[in-house]
Give the backbone structure.
Amino acid sequence: MTAVSERQQLQYIAGQAADARVNVELETEGMTLNLGPQHPATHGTLRIIVRLDGEQVVSADPVMGYMHRGYEKLVEVRTYPQVTTLINRIDWLSSFCNEVPFILAAEKLMDVEAPPRAQWIRTILFELGRVSNIGLFLGEMGLQLGAMTAAFYAFRDREFVLNQIEAVTGGRFHPNFDRIGGLKDDLPKGWIDETKRVMKRMREFCVEMEDLLVGNEIFQARMRGIGVIPAEVGLSYGLSGANIRASGVDWDIRRDSKLSPLPYDQLDWHVWTHPDGDSFARYWVRLQETVEATKIVDQLLDGLPSGPIMAKVPRIIKVPEGEAYVETENPLGAMGYYIVSKGDLGPFRVKIRSASFNNVSITPWVLRGVYVPDVITILASLYFILGDIDR
Amino acid sequence: MSSADTETTETAPEPTDDLRAGVLAAFESELGDAVVASHLKPNDDLWIRVSAVAWHTTAELAKHKFGFSWFDYLSAIDWMPSPFGRYEDAEVDTPLAEKLNQPYDLETGVAGGDTRFQLLARVVDVRNRHVGVHLKSDVPDDTMTMPTWTKVYAGADWHERETWEMYGITFEGHPELRHLYLPTEFEGFPLRKDYPLLPRVVKPWPGIVDVEPMPGEEPGEDEETEAEGEA
Amino acid sequence: MTFAIELAYWQQTIVKSIAVLICVLLPAGAFVNLFLFKMSSFMQSRLGPMEAGPHGQLQLLAEVGKSFQKEDLVPTKADEKLFKLAPYLIVASVLLVYVVVPFGPDAYFTNIDVGIFYALAVSSISVIGVLIAGWASANKYSLLGGLRAAGQLIAYELPMVLAVVGVVIQAGTMNLQGIVGAQANGEIFGFGALGNPYILTQFFGFLIFLVAAQAELTQTPFDMPVAESEIVAGYMTEYSGLRFLLFFIAEFASVGAFGALAATMFLGGWYLPGLDLDANYMNVLGPLILFTKIIVIAGIIFFVRFTYPRFREDQLQKVAWTVLIPLSLVNIFATATLKVVF
């Protein structure tokens, strides 16, 4: 099955090489185009300095740091509960998902385990964050290609998920809900039934996206064979999440990491991969993942155990000395926190491994020789959030 | 661990982790003396500290021989305790020049360490065994130079640039070591512990200590309110 | 031109000038209001402008007023004369197309024998305007947009012309009034009550014309020159205020112009079956009928615009040269054969 992508890849490269020969004979001078930092296509303040030859990219160099907030320095002066407020804002489309690996790492160091009900609700909110984040991607990919209608549908249907998150945590965007040892509050009454309805609606939304975009010939012509990333290259750059699964690597931290106390092993779900590794594959994998996430939420809601929502933790949280690293499968990829603790009220050093940082580091490699419109397509299909790159 | 029951002589056995023990053994057999220390937390994680000269070889072994094909991250840890504390006592924790060169006790973490800076990297075998290994290495204090990983793991490019600009560790063999996040003219290495957090220096953070007691409270009840945290 | 009242020639000229301005502005305004503000909003499950006037009907006035009072900006490095000239060129080319469209048996600006030929030729002047705008803006994005536009507009001229040739063969004349007459008087296999609107017999020609028109108007899926998410606004990036408004009006007015041409050639123009071809009241009713047909065609164009993603430049050219042109040649061949046979 990888033969399809290889052939496409070779054809594509041969096509670019043929064009490049013609351009060299005409001796056109390269033009340097600055994509961003204010640009409708880059989601946020990413700047890419692109050297063009006609409409083909000779070299691409992302310049980032426009949103660098210095989190790794800021957390050194904060206590653990205060850190949670900060790290909410790394990936702001699925904020709850940022807190989870940090809290799990701190719990690992404290040797505290949150009660099962808290773990299940954590997973529900985690998957809801995934649905809302990737649901937006599905519509917004169309926007990057020119079909703006799809983006509006995504925003409309995402509102329902955000309403559910707000009903539990009180915040649509930055819930700040996870605590070491459990969660802040329990679920409100009637939330479970409403969420099931919302999940059904999101599944219909995904079907709508499939009808509108996936089958569209123009969409396919713009996405197939564009930005092919072979699995080995992707792995050595550290791509994660749907990006690497779209290159054929069957790896999902939720299923493969046996360390996580989250209850994924008690559920019946499927990991989606695609052999091609092009932009269309990345879109398709994310589409399937969204549907899968809605089914996971349904199963979690059905099997939710009762019990306390918070374990016994002291009032003033002091994490014992040690180092721990927890990585989870966030919507954007693999996100992890390496906590170095010296027994203080706050961490000594936290290394935040954010998914988009590695995902975007592949752009100089993948953007060589593509056309300017394809630059937009590839960037959009890699799907990054600026807060995730710049931390 | 062992129960108070005097009749049984068994203690709860230390859980064995054959997978990680095997990884550790493989590294030790290939690198020999270069493996300075290691720490294995069963069913949790594995840390291996290698010597600085073997840093590149370790990467090659990990990727080509042991199958750790996925590059997670590469960063550094500065083990010097912060001379400014947590910026909580404005009188004490000001960044006076005298404070910066005081001697301190170097307490390093898991798998030990001998120098102030340590490189920390993680690679994972995602295809077969689903296991990851943390690799640490002491950065020599005098040269602050380490070999680069970019020839083995292409993704290390940006991580090494970030480590250089934040800590000042040069990577030998890196194609273009320039600023990643910070503007080009920036001076200093921000994540080092002796680089002060300037906003806290300029203005004391109101979240630490109540400068004014809550109505109805007396001053001296700060401890309670601080312990409440921001939860 | 026969009027109920006698006007001197200079008075007729003034009336015609005002009429052509109304001709351009009325469709532009109607389309912006109806399709851009409301239809696209409803398609995208939002309401659109609601504040200005009842249900936002006065938004158009607000937009025009806003554009008028904006600062007159010319970028420092831009070629000032060319920069200022470009929007007027494009508006002029649209005005010139309306001049040959017949609105009624006697309601036309001029009745040229090579009407459709003239209309297609004159609509190509806008390419020059676009190129000038792209170059004179001294902005790399505009240059990219302008070059893309030049390639695209020239490429899609051919399928449009070839699609029209089929109509001309069937009607036997290039005169637009004559084409309307031929559709009114024609018969389909002897059944004459409905006339012979060429959409039925020239269905493929109609489709090719619509696709080519979509490209000529730089609407999605052919809006590479103005690809919003890539090159901000293409050749229009540096324009603001009144000049941008001119570009805008030109864009929507040209939708009306091509819609008028399509309605005249394929849908029967100002004539509806059952009405008298020569009566004087048709001079009043004809424009209304034509306007309705223009709205239908513009509706199709805008519906496609808000639904589809956009083609890449080379895919666009491939579609034009390898798909549309051969199809239109086959169409001509078939039309000519059938015309001789039947």
Residues 9-43 of chain C form the longest helix (35 residues). Chains C and B do not touch (no CB pair under 8 Å). Chain C has one domain: 9-341. Chain C has a mean pLDDT of 83.
